[in-house]
């Protein structure tokens, strides 16, 4: 791919991601706070603030603010690390997991409806192939 094609693809993927996020239901917290919860969920339900900041490309102060809000809404819990009492582990609560599930369902429902309405069967097969290619690109070292 040439430079302009790569730039166009990057913009298309970013616009696609923004649209899905806009279609997701947020409930009692912002999209950013929901993304923090989703990152904890993806990490197996437990993470550290430093890991979250790295995974989300967010500043540690923004992550800390989000964690305070999420803890106040009982969507996560903070505990001392069992091996190193100076470190903190954050764990998602069942209410937090449910919020993440609702958030994902909103975006996925919109995506499913839109794909069915806009794309032919052949285009849907091509989109599945494109998804596989994106997975390969994403996991390439």
Description:
It holds the Pfam family MarR_2. InterPro entries: HTH-type_Bedaq_tolerance, HTH_MarR-typ, WH-like_DNA-bd_sf, WH_DNA-bd_sf. This protein is mainly alpha-helical. It contains 6 helices and 3 strands. It has a 3-stranded antiparallel β-sheet. It is globular. The model has no long low-confidence stretch (mean pLDDT 93).
Give me a quick take on this structure:
It contains six helices and three strands, in the order ααβααββαα.
Count structural domains. 1
How far from one another are the termini?
19 Å
Percentage of β-strand residues: 5-15%
Spans of at least 5 consecutive residues with low confidence: none
Strand line-up across the major sheet: 1-3-2
Average pLDDT confidence is 93
In DSSP terms (H or I, runs of 4 or more residues), the helix count works out at 6
InterPro entries: HTH-type_Bedaq_tolerance (IPR052526), HTH_MarR-typ (IPR000835), WH-like_DNA-bd_sf (IPR036388), WH_DNA-bd_sf (IPR036390)
Organism: Gryllotalpicola kribbensis
Protein name: MarR family transcriptional regulator
Domain HTH marR-type: 2-136
Q: What is the secondary structure topology, with strand pairs?
A:
Layout: H1 3-23, H2 31-42, E1 46-47, H3 49-56, H4 60-72, E2 76-80, E3 88-92, H5 94-118, H6 121-139
Antiparallel strand pairs: 1-3, 2-3
Protein name: MarR family transcriptional regulator
Domain HTH marR-type: 2-136
InterPro entries: HTH-type_Bedaq_tolerance (IPR052526), HTH_MarR-typ (IPR000835), WH-like_DNA-bd_sf (IPR036388), WH_DNA-bd_sf (IPR036390)
